[in-house]
Amino acid sequence: MHLLKTLLATAVVQQTVAIPINPEPSLLLRSFSLIERGDPPPQCADDAATEEQGCFTLQDASNKDVRFALAPGQSFDQGIGQGHFSKVAHCVLKDGQDIAVKRFLRAPENYREVNEKSFQFLKELEGNEHIVKAFARGIVQGKVALAMELAPDGDAESRKMQGEFKGKENEKKMKDVGNQILDALAHMHSKGIAHLDIQEGNVVFIKDTAKVIDFDYALKDTKYRNSVPGGDGGDAAPEAFRGDDSSDSEELELTWEWALNRQIDVYANDVWTTAMMFIRMTTGQGFPEPGHFPNSGSERMVEIVVTDDANKRVEEIKKEWPDFSQEFAELLGDILCEQDRRMSMREFKEGFQDVTIYKCSEE
Ligand SMILES: Nc1ncnc2c1ncn2[C@@H]1O[C@H](COP(=O)(O)OP(=O)(O)OP(=O)(O)O)[C@@H](O)[C@H]1O
Ligand SMILES: [Mg+2]
User: What pLDDT score was predicted for residue 362?
Assistant: First the structure.
């Protein structure tokens, strides 16, 4: 079936099942809904209601208007999340379905194209349940905005800080969430799309289902770039490290020389940043300080990466993370290496599925 038709058909099915016939929906009926729907927002009851009256309008993939209001107690300034470039608010569609609306902070001319690209990528990736669904995009109160599936149960950063993935006792949880994230990323790469900004703040949850968000930096069918997000500070792969001119550290300068003028393979960089995020999640750590291991700008990390012999890399990795099993260290050994020999996201996904992260006490 044509994609648009499939979407329309799905929407129609959801409408029929989700909208209760009686005005006071019973709990039973609600629990049968494919999508939970609350009360339709009164601000949008009148089709002619304006933004001043609290009803906003974005456009879906076929440029049809999608109407929604802020959820009670929400504002575009005080919402459920914020990043460097945007704030995210909990909103409600005209039919009562909860959604999240990301609204960029700066003028539309800076972000219209970025937002359109993100929307189109998310539409293309819609078949994967671990990639957030996008519903509509356009302008809200003069700023570029994106309406998407609401993931109300926190992001991987806040969960990591609570120790949810930390240590052997949470290995099952880490494996489960890791598999979901890799499923999303391998799917993305199979469609030629690289994310470029994989980090804990860009993984959100609906109960324990992970959803990858924030495609603002994503690229399609582009293998090499001169710079990527996180490259300057050493949070991206070491080949992306561009140093910091203000630093007088000799160690940083050495790494900078090694990485300078390298073309960065954006897919291999995604594999690196995903592995480093997994390590932070299992160890419960924050991002390392610039220059300190396992930051990509640290001399120690470069020392591991440039080692040609895979067994030697594994030995070094085991020294740094002594709790990790031989098999997990081996998996990491094929990631914490030069980009040309780094495993693909598909191989990472397949390898992670059966791996035991921590060694047994006898090992
Ligand atoms: N669909 C969603 N459901 C729930 N929360 C969300 C959703 N999308 C984003 N958030 C929250 O809002 C935060 C900011 O969103 P996002 O990462 O898209 O913004 P950004 O400005 O591009 O961020 P960055 O600083 O990473 O560039 C996320 O870290 C997350 O906590
Ligand atoms: Mg983000």
Answer: 62
* Residue 288 to residues 27, 37, 200, 292, Cα–Cα distance (Å): 48, 42, 14, 6
Percentage of the chain beyond pLDDT 70 is 86
What DSSP letter does each residue of 38-50 carry, written as one string?
A: -PPPGGGSSTT--
Q: Is 64 in the pocket of ligand 1 (CB under 6 A)?
A: no
For residues 170-178, give the mean pLDDT.
98
Whether residue 72 contacts residue 66, with contact meaning beta carbons closer than 8 Å, is answered with no
| Structural domains of the chain, with CATH | 37-149 (1.10.510.10), 156-353 (1.10.510.10)
Ramachandran angles phi, psi of 4, nearest 5°? -60, -45
Query: Is a pLDDT exceeding 90 seen at residue 21?
Result: no
- What confidence tier does 24 reach under pLDDT thresholds 50, 70, 90? very low
3-state helix, strand, coil split of the chain in percent (to 5) is 40, 15, 45
Say if CB 192 and CB 220 are below 8 A apart: yes
Nearest atom in ligand 1 to 151's CA: 3
Cβ atoms 75, 89 nearer than 8 A: yes
Q: CA 137, CA 159: separation in Å to the nearest integer?
A: 29
The rounded Å distance from CA 10 to ligand 1 centre is 26
Mean pLDDT of 85-107: 96
In order of 58, 61, 293, the CA distances from 64 in angstroms are: 8, 7, 50
Higher pLDDT among residues 115 and 290, named by residue: 115
Write out pLDDT tens, residues 297-319. Answer: 898 999 999 999 999 999 999 99
- Does ligand 1 come within 6 angstroms of the Cβ of 74? no
User: Which H/E stretch holds residue 300?
Assistant: helix 299-305
To test the ligand 1 pocket, which listed residue (68, 77, 84, 102) has its Cβ within 8 A of the most ligand atoms?
Answer: 102
Residue environment code for 124-149, b if the CB has 16+ CB neighbours within 10 A, otherwise e: ebbebebbbbbbbbbbbeebbbbbbb
176 contact partners, CB below 8 Å, separation of at least 6: 208
